[in-house]
Amino acid sequence: xxxxxxxxxxFWQGLKYSLVGFINTLFCIGCxxxxxxxxxxxxxxxxxxxxxxxxxxxxxxxxFTFRVSDRIFSRFVKFLIIALISLAVTQGxxxxxxEWFSTPLWLGVALGMVCYTLLSFFLNVFVVxxxxxxxxxxxx
Length: 140
Known about the structure:
This protein is mainly α. The chain folds into two domains: 8-67; 70-130. The protein has four helices and no strands. The chain has helices at residues 9-37, 42-65, 72-100, 105-128. Helix 1 (9-37) runs antiparallel to helix 2. The longest helix has 29 residues, at 9-37.
């Protein structure tokens, strides 16, 4: 998928990140159904599906969204840490919205999802998938 010249890179990456998230969500749901059909308990099914989808999401973002191929292990560790931070922030947003402000449950959960998506996108852009800069001989 080639970036149109008229679209800024950051916006283009955001579109691709959203597409990966959507596809990965469908994939995760398919995995959950598959594992449930195999007879696994729902806790095992969802845990296994989330783990698989997490790894798939990392590699899709690595190769498709941000097109980087170096330092895979360190990027994966950062991706995991950012996912955990984003989850904690999401839970906090949901708690404050639902428990403190009596926001309807569906809206509090939706606010958390938006926060998770935006926070994880920005952190992934600027921390995990930031391109490695290699100075050219003329920069030295």
